[in-house]
Amino acid sequence: MKTRKLSRKNLIYTDRSGTTVFVNYSESSQILEVKYRNENRVYHYYKVEPDIWEAFKKEIASGGSSGVFVNTVVKPFYMGIEVTGVLDKTGFPKK
Questions:
Q1: pLDDT digit string (tens) for 51-82?
Q2: Phi/psi at 75 (nearest 5 deg)?
Q3: CA dist., res. 51 & res. 88, Å (int)
Q4: How far is CA 14 from CA 1, 3, 52, 60, in A?
Q5: Rounded-to-integer distance, Cα 25 and Cα 14, Å
Q6: H or E element: which one contains 45?
Q7: Which of 21, 24, 60, 64 could form an S-S bond across to 33 if both were Cys, CB 3.0 to 4.6 Å?
């Protein structure tokens, strides 16, 4: 899987989460990007369908946990690759 910089248009900062810093999504490449708080690492999860992203947004809007969602809906079913080594100083993948 090739790592690519994702647009920030879908970026959601998860300030209330003890698990994640932000979650981002690219519909065109179906990549879900998650930055984890404690590990300070960023992962890309591949082939994540748009309905999963929509469910995530609803979960966050209703006060749900981004960490629980990622750990129960994303991680068990989608391949994730750490992309931390290719990040710029703001924590986003370099161009």
A1: 999 999 999 999 999 999 999 999 999 999 99
A2: -55, -40
A3: 29
A4: 26, 23, 17, 8
A5: 14
A6: strand 41-46
A7: 24
pTM of the model: 0.84
Q: Cα Rg for the chain, rounded, in angstroms?
A: 12
Contacts (Cβ under 8 Å, ≥6 apart) of 53: 10, 25, 27, 32
Q: For tokens 């992309």, what's the residue?
A: 83
Would you kindly state where each structural domain of the chain is located, as residue ranges? Answer: 12-86
**φ, ψ of residue 8 in degrees (nearest 5):** -90, 5
Closest CA to 14 of 66, 71, 68: 66
Q: Give pLDDT tens digits for 10-53.
A: 999 998 889 999 999 999 999 999 999 888 889 999 999 999 99
Q: What is the pLDDT of residue 53?
A: 97
